[in-house]
Recover the amino acids of this structure.
């Protein structure tokens, strides 16, 4: 069958999107993340309300749950790629789409298409909750600062998801991929932040942190949002490239 | 006893188990070493406020190994095999061979317990060695009672992971929840700021068995008792659910 290459790409992308959308665990994960985020936002807000009133930044409290929120998106990324390997779906996929590089790029693109709106909604819900609850006590915030922060948060979550998907392709098993990523994001990285402050800014998560954290005077923001985005994106691109190289070379 | 041996052999041949052993044996030592390096100057000057935590912090944060162990022990049974090798579940075979579900669960839990005890002893050895190497003569003495508390904490954590996975059948959720909750900034810790009830959560109560910090809420013994109660309740629930559930549903 001969189809033009632009049509081919659309078809591959459509197939990848459909596979992703029909994966039941994807929706369960997203819903779970959404609910967990609201619970955490409530907890952080109530802690914030107990603290010195009027001095807290709504954005900071609304985004405090980001630290935990990223776990949901890590799972999402891993699920998207590792689900191919449980039960041998990968062979069907590669039989119908024998262009491995194309196929994996389309998968990442499809994942980004699903993730971006979801990440925005989930990040915004936390900030919105903090906004409503702290209306009386906190300082007024400008709307464009809020949008800038939310875009940063969405970008960070999307990059994290894509990075996790690439790691999932490399390791091909859900549990090791999950352990490696969660271990890095939740245990290794917070420890390194304390013990090796000189290189901490160049890890994907700490660099990504500057993408959404509003600059404040009492902390030293070493990276600007643009620099943070650059470092984070570089990591993601490197991992995706490595994943594609391995994916093309390796026996499925 | 034969079921127990079979469970041990199954656990040792799991594809992901090397990760559990590796992390369980060395993560606590690495964390303790990093913490020791960061604290060294303060300890030598005698102004450290966290002297009682040195070393133990590794054992508190390094429980990921046994979490993976507990989760993998159950989730591997429910993994659907590839369609070209039959597409079956291991659990069907296991329950055909050991037909009493209660015995099956008991044998598996015992296997997990035994491996966690061994793993925690290895972890304590590496952690104590690492602390002594870094701090030399300033290293605090490790008391046996607190080390036993740490071993109990590891066993209970492994069994919690085991019990939750029996209920969910899928490893992703318990692994995520427990790993995040054993990290540096735990959700339980956040909740303690909101309500005092959070001190009764299993990980918060359990860590009081050997972490003597300023925000300890329970005595070591009651902490252990509370965590044990969580494990016991979870096991009863898991046993009932497992007993009544259709195997592959």
């Amino acid at each position: 069958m001969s189809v033009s290459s632009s049509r081919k790409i659309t078809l591959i992308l459509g197939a990848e999107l459909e596979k992703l959308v029909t994966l039941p665990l994807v929706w369960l994960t997203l819903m779970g993340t959404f609910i967990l985020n609201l619970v955490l936002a409530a907890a952080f807000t109530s802690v914030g309300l107990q603290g010195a009133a009027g001095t807290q930044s709504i954005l900071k409290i609304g985004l405090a749950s980001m630290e935990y929120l990223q776990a949901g998106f890590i799972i999402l990324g891993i699920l998207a790629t590792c689900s191919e390997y449980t039960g041998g779906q990968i062979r069907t996929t590669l039989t119908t789409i024998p262009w491995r590089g194309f196929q994996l790029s389309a998968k990442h693109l499809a994942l980004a298409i699903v993730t971006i709106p979801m990440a925005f909604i989930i990040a915004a819900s936390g900030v919105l909750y903090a906004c409503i609850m702290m209306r009386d006590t906190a300082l007024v915030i400008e709307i464009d600062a809020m949008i800038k922060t939310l875009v940063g948060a969405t970008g960070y979550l999307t990059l994290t998801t894509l990075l996790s998907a690439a790691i999932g392709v490399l390791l091909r098993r859900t549990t090791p991929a999950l352990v490696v990523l969660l271990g890095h994001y939740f245990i290794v990285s917070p420890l390194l932040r304390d013990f090796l402050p000189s290189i901490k800014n160049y890890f994907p998560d700490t660099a990504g942190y500057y993408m959404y954290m509003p600059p404040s005077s009492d902390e030293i923001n070493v990276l600007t949002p643009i620099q943070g985005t650059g470092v984070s994106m570089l990591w993601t691109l490197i991992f995706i490239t490595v994943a594609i190289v391995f994916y093309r070379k390796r026996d499925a | 006893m034969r079921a127990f041996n079979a469970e041990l052999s199954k656990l040792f041949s799991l594809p992901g188990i090397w990760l559990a052993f590796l992390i369980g044996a060395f993560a606590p030592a690495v964390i303790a070493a990093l913490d020791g390096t960061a604290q060294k100057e303060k300890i030598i000057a005698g102004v450290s406020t966290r002297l009682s935590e040195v070393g133990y912090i590794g054992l508190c944060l390094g429980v990921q190994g046994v979490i993976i162990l507990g989760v993998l022990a159950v989730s591997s049974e429910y993994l659907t095999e590839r369609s070209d090798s039959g597409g079956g579940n291991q659990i069907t075979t296991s329950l055909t061979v050991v037909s009493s579900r209660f015995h099956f669960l008991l044998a598996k839990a015992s296997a997990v317990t035994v491996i966690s005890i061994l793993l925690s002893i290895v972890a304590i050895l590496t952690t104590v060695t690492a602390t002594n190497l870094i701090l030399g003569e300033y290293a605090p003495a490790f008391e046996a009672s607190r080390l036993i508390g740490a071993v109990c904490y590891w066993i209970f954590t492994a069994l919690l992971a085991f019990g939750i996975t029996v209920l969910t059948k899928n490893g992703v959720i318990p692994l995520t929840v427990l790993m995040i909750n054993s990290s540096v900034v735990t959700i339980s810790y956040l909740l303690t700021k909101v309500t005092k009830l959070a001190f009764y959560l299993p990980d918060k109560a359990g860590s009081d068995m050997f972490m003597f910090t300023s925000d300890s809420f329970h005595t070591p013994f009651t902490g252990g008792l509370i965590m044990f109660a969580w494990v016991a309740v979870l096991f009863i629930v898991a046993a009932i659910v497992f007993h009544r559930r259709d195997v592959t549903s």
